[in-house]
Amino acid sequence: MNGRRAAQNRRSRKSDDGTLNRRAMLAATAGLTVSSSGCLRQVREIVLPNNVKQLSLSITTLPADADRESVRIARQLEENFKAVGIDVSRDIRSEIDFRRTVLYNHDFDIWIGRHPGGTDPDYLYEALYSRFTDESGWQNPFGFTNQNVDELLEAQRRAEGEERRKAVTEVLEAIASEQPLVPICVPEEHRMVNADRFDGWEDGHLATRHGYLGLDPDVDVESLGVAHTDARPTENLNPIATDYRGRGTITDLLYDSLGTQDGTGAIQPWLARSWEWDGDTADVRLRPDCEFHDGVPVTAEDVAFTYRFLQDVSLGNHEAPSPAPRYRGQIDAVEAVDIRRDDRLEITVDTNQTVGERAFLVPILPAHVWRERTNDVIGPGGPTIAQGTTQAIVADNMPPVGSGPFQFADATEGDRLELERHEMHFTRRTTDELPEPTIDECTFAIHPGSAGAARVVADGSADVTSLPLDTNVLGDIDESGSGQLRESTSWTFYVLGFNARKAPFNNYRFRRLIAQLIDKQWLTDEIFYGHARPVATPVTEEWVPESLEWDDHDPKTPFLGADGDVDVRAARSAFEDAGFRYDDRDRLRVRHEN
């Protein structure tokens, strides 16, 4: 028998008062039927109750044609988990089904995918605050509840300056200790652009509206061809449908928001001509003579309606509010909206100004369109959300009516989405230095994968790939012609998410051990071909405290192994030291509910 375990067994036979403890009594009983030379694990196997079985878990992720990196991470983790005695299966789902499973139904064990993240660490309030655990969308899909983390998340929303930086550091250290999610890496974002037909690609981030506005087209160029690898926008353009919405770029083109945010994270007025803060209240003045795409004027009432509606898509028809599946963290900052004139309103927040201005980034919805979508859905018609399913949640919103720089022209499901310039947009007439739509048409053509999307830009058939290219195609891209690669800042990250609503994923010790079975450096080198950086905390680099900086390993949950291979002995010892059990066939055991 292993000497260390024998010593532990001897130490555990008596408690501090000299009496036999429960473990020793069980071991003594088992000793009547087990040879004295038997291993302690055999003893454990015999005395295990009937509801203690091998740990089985399922990894929910996307197929390779939707997210090659996610499924490859899942495959590697499956090998590592099996090596330490965990029974593992993979649950591969389409993008829509994946989001409904994880974000709406919460029907998963762990999931691997790309989290939208954010430029400001306050996005963690939406991601982890316990009040959101039963809601649908990106608000706390992990079902994580922790009073200390809640208090820290609230504190960073109210602190300013250096005090806020300290508060954010406390949040990040608490999250690193609890591991409700395991941030794996931040990928580089590469897109292909046509440098002959357009100049100005470097002026705006292509994950925001700024990437498509202010471009300088060549003579006689009147349309922008976009190679897109996600067919969902051709089927549904509902801005609050989390199962259909990705980065939000197309929403940014169709809808205006009070403020706008470029790739640096800075927020400046957009639909709002200006705002001035007096304590926790912003005096917001709208740009004059703005119209929705159907010709109806944009007024302060539409802005006020938007915030009421996103806070409760039933507008009071349910016993409890039904928040929209998107924008929850941002609108939660808004305490009151008071209309002063058609073009002026006051927005009061219960946070600091930095967090409050994030609420200015939600799309402004036309009240005359969305007010009619507050009734409950009767019968099947899409996803069911915890807060109650209204028509607003399931509507495909075709054609969409916004006030943004582009408006809907046509769509062919699975093939293309055509937008045309909104001639009445304020950027066409303002004297402010704002980027405007410089082309008549913008067409998103659907391609099956990154390689094909990059190819049509390289041969001049399209002008830009809208989504980040898969890292495995970057080395094969030909930049000898007009097609050129552009790298952009990324605030998204790859993550392993736990479903903390059920055991053993509600046990922080178990979550930390799982985190230590992930070789983040190896994954970035082998799966991302070095086009990613491993991380220990899920915020942009300027917010990472020294205690959580990556220095060849994760400072809180270092990998139990090397070069992607788990040190099985070390990992099993770590599980046992944390109170978990193995049977005589090296299977990790956990208690299941009868």
TrEMBL record:
Q: Region (Disordered) spans which residues?
A: 1-20
Biological-process GO terms, alphabetical: peptide transport
Q: Taking every annotated instance into account, which residue ranges of this chain make up the domain Solute-binding protein family? A: 267-586
Q: Which InterPro entries match?
A: SBP_5, SBP_5_dom
The GO terms this record gives for MF are: peptide transmembrane transporter activity
Which domain of life does the UniProt lineage start with? Archaea
The regions listed as transmembrane in this protein's record are none
Q: Which Pfam families match?
A: SBP_bac_5
- Name by which UniProt lists this protein: Peptide/nickel transport system substrate-binding protein
Q: What is the lineage of its organism?
A: Archaea, Methanobacteriati, Methanobacteriota, Stenosarchaea group, Halobacteria
